[in-house]
Amino acid sequence: MTTTTSVMRSEIAQQPEALRTTLDALLPMAGEIERLARETRQVLFIARGSSDNAAVYGSYLVQAHGGRLTTLASPSIATTYHAKMDLSGVLAVAISQSGRTEEIVDTMRWAAECGARTVGITNGAGSPLTEAADVALVTRAGNELAVPATKTYTTQLAALAVLALGLGADLDAGRLRGVPDTIEEVLAQPTDRLDAIVERLIGVKGAVISGRGMAFSTALEAALKLKEACYLHAMGLSYADLLHGPIAVVDRDTPAILVAANSGPTLPGTVALAERVAAAGAPAYGIGGGAALAGACDLAVPMPDVPEWLAPISLIVPAQLITEQLARRLGYNPDAPRGLGKVTQTS
């Protein structure tokens, strides 16, 4: 197996420090978010790509723990249809790694013109997104050179956790500060199970990645990583949606990768799905889920015990490592997937 170190692998290792610096900068801003949010009742998330997967985490977090209705925006309503609507009482949260994706900035400006208050989450200090937002949560991931988002994604999740705290979520900020230590623990684990999953993914053309609730964002982001860096036909699905028909594609040549926190209300369903996949003769690989999910899967990567609401920030790390290693084993450059750039402009 090649031992070449990619930029992506180096940036995966930088995540604990990026998260510490980000949390140090953003946690003191929870009060500022709280003051802005007093004028609002619900949240509209505006994002694309990995940032949109982060928004899914934010949506579950704010609804489950903050008691506010959330919606994922359709930016084309603003940029293509130029629709006008009443967004008074709405907090529009735009998420963009660079802060320079015109569609996202334009959609946030449109939301403000429609009466929304605005928050921008970005790694781009001084970017158009920060200049246009009422409050800017600027992550401290540093310069990210590899095209697949790693440290910018996990710092976005941390920013969304701070957002939830500012919106009144009854969560422990002290546990959030412990996430960098958790990721260091994940990175220090033996890699035998992760290596074995990579070996079994060589030669497959597609995979289904599934989780539910807080972990749904991880399934979506893991699938995106495998698509963009390994060119797999990877589908990220809630297990509830998977059972409504797409499970038919899971077979011995199309494995399922299942992600879950070690505890929480969605774990039993994830375990049941693993058992169903195994009964169909298809490979099932787990990330997290404790002993229950490991016992139902062919192979599973163990994860430290953290509260379900924090688990997605660390659950994505094994998926990042699998993606980087699999891309190299397939002869691809994970730092520069074909046809992709660091900033994607859409209209």
TrEMBL record:
CDD domains: SIS_GlmS_GlmD_1, SIS_GlmS_GlmD_2. SUPFAM superfamilies: SIS domain (SSF53697). It is an enzyme of class 2 (transferase). GO terms for biological process: carbohydrate derivative metabolic process. The keyword Transferase applies. GO terms for molecular function: carbohydrate derivative binding; glutamine-fructose-6-phosphate transaminase (isomerizing) activity. Keywords: Aminotransferase, Repeat, Transferase. Transmembrane segments: none annotated. PROSITE patterns: SIS. Gene3D superfamilies: Glucose-6-phosphate isomerase like protein, domain 1 (3.40.50.10490). Its EC number is 2.6.1.16. Residues 32-173, 197-337 form the SIS domain. This is Glucosamine--fructose-6-phosphate aminotransferase (Isomerizing). The lineage of its organism: Bacteria, Bacillati, Actinomycetota, Actinomycetes, Streptosporangiales.
